[in-house]
Amino acid sequence: MAQSAIDLNPVTRITIGAVGEPGQRTFYIQARQGSMVVTLLCEKEQAQAIAMGIEQIIMQIAQQSPDKVGPFDEVLALDMSLEEPIEPLFRVGQIGLGYDEEHNMLVLVTQELAAEDADPEETSAARFWFTPIQGRTLSHHAMQVVAAGRPTCPLCGAPIEADGEHFCPRKNGHNKPE
Q1: Which domains does the chain have, with CATH numbers?
Q2: Is the peptide bond before 132 cis (omega within 30 degrees of 0)?
């Protein structure tokens, strides 16, 4: 893929969603600015890391300037579902989060996952700028999406299949949790 740089500053909408059945889901980051919609393919762990990172940044902002983030229980009542068609621009490799204090905006920076032999200068990138309240809404929604997957074993934390089967190293390899 030829190098491209997307910069949505600010987004009018940003979400994380998943498509498919638990255990077979595909995760996406999607942002909109006006009529432009950018969709990126990501991993479940990346979606969770984004949500946790946003919460950490908002907590840091609140310690210094509580008026910039609003009440901690405040989230926007938005439709956070993915917009069709879902056509990802690239698969996310690296993720970064930042905060622009002057404009009171958070930024999610993503870089394309490059093949081992690819030139890093040829990878695509996208930056999405959003307000703290949009960030808190995104974080809460992303955590719900991540949690909607397969249940996890209380002993080892690995996912349990729909039929209840699970190889648990803490139970010496026995399948079904008691």
Answers
A1: 5-147 (3.30.2450), 151-178 (no CATH)
A2: no
Contacts by 103-108, CB closer than 8 A, 24 or more apart:
103/129, 104/68, 104/131, 104/132, 105/9, 105/10, 105/129, 105/130, 105/131, 106/54, 106/57, 106/58, 106/130, 106/131, 106/132, 106/134, 106/135, 108/14, 108/29, 108/50
pLDDT at 101: 93
State phi, psi for 55 to the nearest 5 degrees: -60, -40
Q: Tell me which of 1 and 39 has the higher pLDDT.
A: 39
- Between strands 105-112 and 125-130, the pairing is antiparallel
- The radius of gyration computed from the CA coordinates of the chain, to the nearest angstrom, equals 18
Question: What percent of the chain is predicted at pLDDT more than 90?
Answer: 62
- According to DSSP, the β-strands at 26-33 and 36-42 are antiparallel
Question: Rounded to two decimals, what is the model's pTM?
Answer: 0.83
Closest CA to 110 of 39, 55, 20, 44: 39
